[in-house]
Amino acid sequence: MTGARPDDRPGRLEVLPVRVPGEVSGPVAALLCAHADLRDGDVVVVSQKAVSKSEGRVVLLSDVSPSPLAEGIASEYGKDPRIVELALSESRRIVRMARGTLIMETRSGIICANAGVDESNAGEGRAVLLPEDPDASARRIAEQILEISGARVAVLVSDTFGRAFRVGQTDCAIGVHGIPPVLEYAGERDADGRELRVTAVALADEVCGAAEIVMGKSLGIPAAVVRGLRMRGGGGAGLLLRPNDEDLFCGPPPDGMAGRPGRH
């Protein structure tokens, strides 16, 4: 188990939106403490975009010089070459390119569209990049909240991902501090007494999905507090990433398909 047992599951959860007026700027922890009544045991879910903006991970597109590779990909797939250049710069490899979509593996191991580079809610002529180390961001926010308010909280950094086999997007945890990212049920017994062998629950992703319901995409709500989750444990978001040798669909990078570091 990664820090929690099945019988630790709460009987009731509250999901409370944290409304912050205006644009997110400055330390996220200070904003959260100013606009939320944080308590020991709370799980604070913060949008990736709010964290990235607070960490200065915003790029002026006018400052980006696309490489010939970015120009070629952009021409073939109908994309802005500057966004492609940023995606290449943030990537470890290109996983797949098809139907106008670029699926990349980021340097931190996350597989997502455009390496997480996003123009929405970024401001005109700007793009937002993922935090360089989302787990470190989550830990730092939790430590700052403790220093400011005295509340011991868990923190998740949440981003929106599509799913390969399902329609629609859902929020997932890209940074985790203070709760177990995954609950391993192997060795437990089901209701009929049969031993579970491979069941694992993506707890951090489930919490982020619940928080997104109250946060939305255009409501100006950069965070939510999930109250009543008794599970506590360690481990970062890397525990949610399937190893390449177990991935039947993305798998290890074939020869010649690795993305290259770029400049911007």
Number of helices in the DSSP assignment: 6
| Total number of strands | 12
Q: Distance between termini?
A: 42 Å
As laid out across the biggest beta sheet, the strand order is 1-12-2-8-9
Rg (CA only): 19 Å
CATH topology of the largest domain: 60s Ribosomal Protein L30, Chain: A
Low-pLDDT residue intervals, each spanning 5 or more residues: 256-264
- Please provide the ordered H/E string of secondary-structure elements: EHEHEHHEEEEHEEEEHE
Shape verdict: globular
User: Structural class of the secondary elements?
Assistant: alpha+beta
Indicate the percent of residues in helices.
10-25%
How many structurally independent domains?
A: 2
Relative strand content: 15-25%
CATH architecture of the largest domain: 2-Layer Sandwich
Describe the largest sheet.
Answer: 5 strands, mixed
